[in-house]
Amino acid sequence: MHRKKIRTLVLVGGFMAGGFLFGSTASAEGPTAAMLANTCAGCHGTNGVSGGPAMPSIAGFPATYFKAIMKEFKDGTRPSTIMGRLAKGYSDEEIALIADFFAKTKWSSANGHANSKNATVVDTALAAKGKKLATDSKCDKCHEDDGVFQDEDTPRVAGQWLDYLIIKMRDYRNPDMKVPQQKKMETAMEKLSLDDLLAVAHFYASNKK
Amino acid sequence: MSMLNRRTFVKLSGAAALVGLSTTAFSRRGFAADKGRVVVIGGGYGGSIAAKYIRMADPGIEVTLIEQNPNYYSCPMSNWVVAGFRDLEVQKWGYEGLKKHGVKVVHEQATEIDPATKTVTTKGGTKFKYDKLVVGPGVSFKPMEGYDGEALDKMPHAWNAGPQTVLLNKQLQAMRDGDPFIMVAPTDPFRCPPGPYERAGLVAHYLMKNKPKSKVIILDPKDKFSKMGLFTAGWKKLYGYETENSKIEWIPGGQGGKVTKVDAKTMTVYTEMAEFKSSCINVIPPQKANAIAEAAKLTDESGWCPVNFDTFESKIHKDIHVIGDASMATGLPKSGYAANSEAKVAAAAIVALLNGQKPGEPSFVNTCYSMLSPTSAISVAAVYKIVEGKIKEVGGGLSAADASDAVRQQEASYNESWYQSIMADTFS
């Protein structure tokens, strides 16, 4: 019920944002949203659709989620190799502009990308095991619709690059790189072995929706 | 929420795509260039991006890309080919993707730019009129005694990817075990500042396995280099650097590393104090902006092209924007990522100007990975802005000096993915 309410509100927001989509984004001061966001494409691909299997696609990420993780990169609570360094180069206002830009770009699943030949191939047996594990561990309570769902604190994981998901699962077992998670996710993930986590990664990557 | 939000988006973008298509159709039917004509010289990390992003932002602008080669070979990652663990084919890209954005691609060599009549002429004599010209031609070599003619094949530079890269790899393979791999490093500024040192490490990795009696000797006119602390720490760990059995010996300018001449007939390199002989010598000469930029008088006495940082328009000729390694973007390194970023700034400025608007404020990023070995990498990443007329780093830095092997390995996989993503940004 609660979630439904949020969806309706966001729908209205979506329409409003759409009105500005192709208008001028120039503000009196500072670079435009497109100027800022296009510099991300070197790693995250044109309009946030990554062409590199270890780099996540960020197209269509909800702006609130995007802003939250950029803040974590910036203050160091989210471990990273380079994102922490880059996030420090942007003001909160600039991060908000970048977040709005990517919220309006269109998601495209990795398994349809021309570069998917360079990626780790989804193992269907592992994906099937992962589907069961995801259900048993209640991953689908937040990552609804087999990982398609996203909101202000849940990223879309369906059709994300498998190599990236594998890196993140391995990071979860590495104290230096572990990304802090919400309590319910922490509890669920702690109960799974690394092999289980990798199977879950195969499952979400396999979803072509 | 995402479903609905996305659906809304798809509808809107679909409508926009239709508008875009009809504009393109108009220009193709002869109402060409209703907003203006842009010519781009050079289809590399800079030029291709400028062409694509101008078309993406405004399909009413006609864009012609003049590139002499039918395919592009990426310099980033080509050190892997030199060291023999990557095929040159992985470095090869084509121009079909740009054509899908409505870029007209002409495979001819641009030989002349006339800023007065705003015309570019090719070797074949074809003339192209422009309202705005983007020049991203890369680098040429400055003269170095003994390094001309067939010396380029006997002592390959491998500083433009392609046949030279393969040539150096073949000479490395054929090298006598016990001979040094001699690298002559260039003076600042030059294309890809960490490049020679990445190459040194990867060749050392090859030598450990294949030529156990050989080592790399870097003859360097400089006393320091890009990512120096991270490179030397990595070399210590992997190649015994600064020990008796080191696989890499670096001779800086202060210790006689400056090469004064080379002799390809005797395969000898001369410094002020000594001479070095080997069956495998890699000469990376000092550099300047590509000859076409010099011929068009876009360069100053430094050999590079001075530009206004907010638009990358030449300070010498109006309506000509110089991007990538050829430009003098003081503050930014001469890297592939910087060229990509500069191209987007120039593209946005050109679109604004052709629409009668004032160009906006630029933002730049450079992210540059270097390999220590095939499974270990370091990086530098930063965001840049214009502060008081100068390009300034506003956030960023190097990989942590004490990073774990797992992190170095992760950066190696990000390096490959960076390459795939930036090449998709450039050519699809």
Highlighted features:
heterodimer; A: 209 residues; mainly alpha; Cytochrome Bc1 Complex, Chain D, domain 2; 2 domains; 11 helices; disordered N terminus; B: 428 residues; alpha/beta; FAD/NAD(P)-binding domain; five-stranded parallel beta sheet; four-stranded parallel beta sheet
Structure description:
The complex is a heterodimer of chains A (209) and B (428). With 209 residues, chain A is mostly helical. Chain A has 2 domains: 33-106, Orthogonal Bundle (Cytochrome Bc1 Complex, Chain D, domain 2); 119-206, Orthogonal Bundle (Cytochrome Bc1 Complex, Chain D, domain 2), CATH 1.10.760. Chain A has helices spanning 2-20, 33-38, 41-44, 63-75, 83-87, 92-103, 124-136, 144-147, 162-172, 183-190, 194-206. In chain A, helix 9 (162-172) packs antiparallel against helix 11. Chain B is α/β, with parallel strands linked by helices and 428 residues long. Chain B folds into 2 domains: 16-68 and 108-142 and 286-360, FAD/NAD(P)-binding domain, CATH 3.50.50.60; 146-284, FAD/NAD(P)-binding domain (3-Layer(bba) Sandwich), CATH 3.50.50.60. Mean pLDDT of chain B is 93; it is low at 1-32.
Q: What is the mean pLDDT of chain B?
A: 93
Question: How many distinct helices of chain A?
Answer: 11
**What is the CATH homologous superfamily assignment of the largest domain in chain B?**
FAD/NAD(P)-binding domain
Q: Report the principal-axis shape of chain B.
A: globular
Regions with little confidence, pLDDT below 50 for 5+ residues of chain B: 1-32
**Euclidean distance between termini CA atoms of chain B:** 30 Å
**Helix count from the secondary structure assignment of chain B:** 11
Q: Under the CATH scheme, which architecture of the largest domain in chain A would be assigned?
A: Orthogonal Bundle
Percent helix of chain B, as a range, is 25-40%
* CATH T-level topology of the largest domain in chain A: Cytochrome Bc1 Complex, Chain D, domain 2
